[in-house]
Design brief:
The complex is a heterotrimer of chains A (292), B (238) and C (381).
Chain A lengths: L1 H31 L6 H19 L2 H27 L4 H23 L16 E2 L2 E2 L3 H23 L1 H11 L1 H6 L4 H23 L12 H14 L4 H22 L4 H15 L14
Antiparallel strand pairs in A: 1-2
Helix pairs in contact in A: 1-5, 1-8, 1-9, 1-10, 2-3, 2-4, 2-8, 3-8, 5-6, 6-8, 9-10, 9-11
Chain B lengths: L2 E12 L2 E12 L3 E6 L5 H8 L7 E6 L2 E2 L5 H4 L4 E4 L11 H9 L5 H14 L1 H5 L10 H13 L5 E5 L7 H18 L2 E5 L3 H7 L2 E6 L2 E7 H6 L1 H8 L2
Parallel strand pairs in B: 3-8, 3-9, 6-7, 7-8
Antiparallel strand pairs in B: 1-2, 1-4, 4-5, 9-10
Chain C lengths: L15 H4 L10 H23 L4 H26 L7 H21 L7 H26 L2 H21 L1 H4 L5 E2 L15 H25 L1 H11 L1 H6 L4 H27 L1 E2 L6 H14 L4 H25 L3 H7 L2 H17 L3 H18 L11
Antiparallel strand pairs in C: 1-2
Classes of the chains: A mainly alpha (292), B alpha/beta (238), C mainly alpha (381).
InterPro entries (chain A): ABC_transp_permease, BCAA_transport_permease
Family (chain A): Belongs to the binding-protein-dependent transport system permease family. LivHM subfamily.
Membrane topology (chain A): Multi-pass membrane protein
Amino acid sequence: MERFWFLTFDGLAAGAVYAAFALALVLIWRAARVVNFAQGAMAVATAYVGYAVVSATGSYWLGLAAAILSGLALGALVERVLMRFAGPGGPLNQVIVALGLVLVIQAVLGMIFGNEYRPAPAPFDTDALTIAGVAALSPYDLWVLGAALTVVALLAVLFTRTPIGLRMRAAAFAPEVSRLLGVSVGRMLTLGWALAAAVGALAGMLVVPTGLGLHSHAMDLVFVIAFTAAVVGGLDSPVGAVVGGLLVGLILSYVTGYLGPDTTPLAVLVLLLAVLLVRPGGLFSAARARHV
Amino acid sequence: MTAVLEVEALSSGYGPVPVLRDVAFTVPAGTVTAVLGANGAGKTTLLRTLSGLLRPTGGRVRYAGEDLRGVRVEHLVRRGLAHVPEGRGVVTELTVAENLRLGGLWRRDRADARRALDEVYELFPALARRRDHAGHQLSGGERQMLAIGRALIARPRLLLLDEPSLGLAPKVTAQIMALLRRLRDERGLTVLLVEQNVRSALSVADQGIVMSLGRVVTAAPAARLRDDDQLRHAYLGF
Amino acid sequence: MTTTPTETAPATASPLRRLLPGAPAGRDPRGSTLLRHLAVAVFAGTLVVLVTNQLAPYQNLQVARVCAFLCVTAGHTVLVGLNGQLSLGHGALMATGAYTVALTQQALDERAVRGWWTLPASLLAGVAVTALGGLVVGLAAARLRGPYLAGVTLAVATLVPAVTTIFTGVFNGEQGLSFPAQTPPAALGAYFQPERWLAWIALAAALLTMLLLANLVRSRFGRSLVVVRDDEVAARLAGIPVARTQVLAFVVSAACAGLGGGVYAMLTATVAPGKFPLDLSLFLLMAIVIGGLGSLAGAVWGAVLLVALQDLPGLLTEHLSLSAGLAQRLEGNLALAVFGLVLIVVMLAAPGGLQGGVRALTARLRGAVRRRPATRRSPDR
Ligand SMILES: Nc1ncnc2c1ncn2[C@@H]1O[C@H](COP(=O)(O)OP(=O)(O)O)[C@@H](O)[C@H]1O
Ligand SMILES: [Mg+2]
């Protein structure tokens, strides 16, 4: 039972990161109807920036801010320079361009920083605290959980309570009508990509210290897991992405804990296929079916 | 009477396919002008070209004396040109209140935007009651009211309306036509009303333009279109 | 070698009318097309065989690798370019073929079963198993649209190498498997270059794949692929079974990838998960995009590109005399960055890829010769 609780807490902490990352995917999907396959690579790039600032200034928080800011910039750049021009060719073209971006980002990171894993120290202790005899969350897990949930809450406020959030939602749902109502749809799209990339950057900063360290491929598996989480929640639903992220985090934690770490990748694949075949719209899809 | 809208030799289309050819007409201020014509005549294409959603391939559009070429779509509403697109243009995922708020987001004069919002709720009590309902929960008539109400929040000079009667019960259609009449008479609103429902449109319009195959085939005062049997037979088929 | 019989026109506004069954789709000289394809294949094959006689062992191995990759890219480009199903998992399908061939060869060797037919039998097994895998993914794919399919296949590509460590007993984990290498038959003489023999085998596989695909693309099924890609509703109205067409396209494409993977394994007589990383799947996509999506001739360009991508880095660092550290960092990455960039530029500026460029060039030349403006795309060539 003790192990169960430990795995549960561990899964929630990991799930919070998947949730944030899945949320970033959902943001772009809702804004532009494209799954950003470059999101993992973009997050790694911003994490490199963040940790470069950490080692230059000695402050984790400055590094975190730098990563998030560079995420904003990178997201806006990718939309303005690439996706805007790939869009007319259809979603297939955008996906392929995103994959080209993955290759470029990973290669450039490899050229600058080399191919070995670089240390990415966590800002808090990563040893689990023992509460009432049960090994539960570490201080770092608490930070991850708190940061991810804060971002989710902030985004919820942004989208439902602010004019800019209303514009972004309208532009995503009905671009033409929104333009007629005075909304700069192009600008909203850029903003959507920027926001998503910033959330991705945060997720990257949170997840990298829990793995082997900084590496151009550090987010490959995380991306696939987050995609699974987004699909579990239904690509269209931000709430779904958060619940999906936590759920996938828990499931993977149990699988890893009880069946061994080697089985994790297989579990992800099975989970993804199962959801897509049984409930393609995600667990939280509205009753309204999408007509193809 | 000054013209709010002057269209000269306008042509446009979709990619290589031309639809509008050499369309010309003027819309005097404070009038309702009906654009009539069969399905596929190019009425929607005309409105989309006027508001810049489609780029004209030739000709000119002057609005309040200014050439609209190069003016971005999202800036037109700031100049008082509102377009309610075909199919009503309600953002169905947003609530009634959000749709209305969206219509006034660009306005600097927040106080007047609030006032305009209150007026819309007054004009359409049904919308006030369904404030927090999502767009897709509304009936066809309510959606049309929402779309028109949302356009009014911009305090437009010129309202482009694309088939507001589409799919509505005759009673609701009559209500909307009465509303247009009121807006014209009380506020001096200029309306370009695209309709296939000829009788309803002519019941409110001051002048009528008949389109066929992308051209204007006749333009006449609404009374003449209503009463001149020959004209009616020739162009409107009844 | 670059002039393959089948040119498939890029997507245009309304290919439907031309492609719908029942519409006058030009003459359908099935027989003569087959003969023409066969003639081109024989010609290309003879040419390559003649060339291999002049090449050094390493160069022959390169030819062999191009041929192995060609099996994969040809099938991949048909799936992505003509049927619009974006698979990011063809590296994993290659791995499936490769491991099947390795396991079969090992098993046969352990039982001391020998003979000329063992390799074809193993390759056939590889094709069959991979086709089966393709059927599973394809069945899922037919129910999925765009990003979901890409996501699932990406997951497959990312995660399948891990399978080899889960079932270490069978796949021997990171180490992988090895099996006896192919040796030239005695009839070719005692001093026959083994690499040349490998190149010939790979060439045979590639020619067979190209021949089959070229005819498939020209067939009624090939036209259905395009109709389904462009407009599923229209396809249904025309009586084309959409789901079955998509699944079948995936199976065919997977079978080609399995063959390519099997041949690829045969070249080194080893398989290991490290040879089939996620990047391989991305490279495959990159190759067919740069070559020209949907074009079998473009698949040849793509295959050449893939081998260049593997070999270029070594050349670069060798000739540029860089410091060891820098060389190590540039190795692989520089070429990757360049190709990634090219991929993006091609996608944004020239979706026809290399083959699209070649086509435009030949059309212009021919137009100049005939002294009349070249039609951009003649329906039947
Ligand atoms: N998106 C489009 N692409 C190509 N042709 C179109 C498009 N929309 C309309 N058309 C064509 O333009 C012509 C005019 O259509 P439209 O303006 O919608 O007519 P109306 O509104 O009078 O019914 C029709 O022949 C129609 O087929
Ligand atoms: Mg219309």
